[in-house]
Amino acid sequence: MAPADWEDWLRLLATDGVGPATARRLLAAFGPPAAVLAQPRAALAAVVGEALAQRLRTAPDGWASLRQRTADWLDHPDHHLLALGDDAYPSALLHAPDPPPLLHVVGDWRALHTPRVLAIVGSRHPTPQGSANARAFARALAERGVCVVSGLAAGIDGAAHEGALDAGGPTVAVVGTGLDRVYPARHRALAQRVAAHGCLVSEYALGTPPLAPHFPRRNRIIAGLAHGTLVVEAALDSGSLITAEQAMQMGREVFAIPGSIHAPQSRGCHALIRQGAKLVETVQHIEEELLGVWGAAAAPPAAASTAAAPDDTDPVLRALGYDPTPLDVLQARCGWDTAALQAHLLTLELDGHVARLPGGLLQRVARG
């Protein structure tokens, strides 16, 4: 995109009161941003009202700083701006409601055009089993040529990106800040890996902080880029349910992994299943539903199972089951004395078969 073009796009969208819907209304009325900004006040007022028309006639506050910051940012070869109408703009978003007029991208924008795309979202506070499920599903999907889209958030999002990267990617992270920031900060290294094997995407201008209203809005982009959305774990008030609802409204498939009826992180998934989301236990269940969109999958590479023999034969694991369980209940089930049980649990924990949850609960971790 030529400097004159991106500057016009950026200035239009930086104007207070110009969101995606208003921008599209102006573009439909007058043509490209340069033409919008060249309109007389009266013409603009006829479309968006007098107050906004007046603001469009003057540079927004901080415009010179934003323009220079963006120009410096675009000097990097892996930094891109994609506007509505560009050939590089993802076609999936063009057919979604409320497409963002301008996308900031770090990394390889071609990842946005992968033929097979699935979103994986879920709780920021997952159980160990939930994290393991997200990682395993993402890895298996990536091995089958699927691009995994998520939101770079703590918990399930981060595990999904990591699983896809473990299989060689690509993966796409849609964030709710400017791309000169990483939120949460502890995902800085993960963001760099995503950019190296896919891309980071934001509709927000550089310098935009992590404001709460931005994250529900970015969820529509996650849902819009993907052919379906998999919810791994989600409480009833989880933002992941917003992504799922938006996917349903777009006519996209929604999948949910069931969990324990006693776990708060499973209640959102169970609610989605009651609303018609597809219950899935394997990646094959997802592929079967999306066969008409994706076509037949390539066989994944053969890999040794990461689950060791104790998963099938250990008496403590059989007694533990897959629900979060207090120590005293586990002891009653298996009949071991406290010292022997604690010692064996430590071995299982070190081997990755058992995790300790808040409140003194234990949970078996099935590894894929």
TrEMBL record:
<dbReference type="InterPro" id="IPR010994">
    <property type="entry name" value="RuvA_2-like"/>
</dbReference>
<dbReference type="InterPro" id="IPR003488">
    <property type="entry name" value="DprA"/>
</dbReference>
<dbReference type="GO" id="GO:0009294">
    <property type="term" value="P:DNA-mediated transformation"/>
</dbReference>
<dbReference type="Pfam" id="PF14520">
    <property type="entry name" value="HHH_5"/>
</dbReference>
<dbReference type="InterPro" id="IPR041614">
    <property type="entry name" value="DprA_WH"/>
</dbReference>
<dbReference type="InterPro" id="IPR057666">
    <property type="entry name" value="DrpA_SLOG"/>
</dbReference>
<dbReference type="Pfam" id="PF02481">
    <property type="entry name" value="DNA_processg_A"/>
</dbReference>
<dbReference type="Pfam" id="PF17782">
    <property type="entry name" value="WHD_DprA"/>
</dbReference>
<feature type="domain" description="Smf/DprA SLOG">
    <location>
        <begin position="81"/>
        <end position="290"/>
    </location>
</feature>
<comment type="similarity">
    <text>Belongs to the DprA/Smf family.</text>
</comment>
<protein>
    <submittedName>
        <fullName>DNA processing protein DprA</fullName>
    </submittedName>
</protein>
<feature type="domain" description="DprA winged helix">
    <location>
        <begin position="300"/>
        <end position="360"/>
    </location>
</feature>
<dbReference type="InterPro" id="IPR036388">
    <property type="entry name" value="WH-like_DNA-bd_sf"/>
</dbReference>
